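Whether sequence alone determines local backbone shape is best considered at the level of individual chains. We regard such an encoding as a compact summary of how the chain folds. The sequence in question and its structure tokens are set out directly beneath this paragraph.
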Amino acid sequence: MFKVKYGDDYLTDYVRFIKVNRGVASESELLLEENSGDGTKVLKSRRKAKEIPMTFHVIDGLDVNVVREKLGSIISTTETKQLIFSDNPNFYYEAILTGTIEYTDDGFNADGGFTLLVPSGYAESVDTKVLNNDNSGGENGTIINNADNSVSVLINNNGTLPIYPTIKITPTAESGFFGIAGQNVLEIGNPDEADEKRKTKQTTIADFKTQSDFDTNFVDATDRTTSWETNISPIPNNSKLKWKT
């Protein structure tokens, strides 16, 4: 049975969907420049918001007045909710109502429709892929232990959009410094401070799982006179972050 979940509620507990138009892809908006010769040059492109029109029939036997009120309370929100279709359960849309909810009834039967807007224009996966030493070299990517004791990680992005990995580091010995170089550079600790004594207390120095956690707890470091040289183009040297205290 085809089911539609919106937020914490199943819309298909109240209605049977006659048509759901998810389309193939979001519309693209292009900024073009005329060439001196044939054709045009694409200066910029962006994905536009996606609309998902849906028409329905209220399930026979249900009170059409109760369903009217229930649909209104579920769909008429001021914030996006996760929209999941049972035929593609590993993906969700962050969606919100646009326009009005059409609802026509004769006291016993009712039909209607509404359109949900996906501001981002795309669906997101609910799956989490894990890359570690056990599956290194497979579909998720490769971990390389370098001769200088550094580790190189190549992550395979099998999706169509940028990804933001969650990195878990488990030290095997005392360490006062961690450095992660990618499109940006993240440093935790002091690379210039010599080890003085072994620490016996375990301390969590960073715990963030979302972009919001990262933005809230990290700021640009401007008070350092030394740096960890990366020499990885296009990352500028002296790029670093520090933990807010």
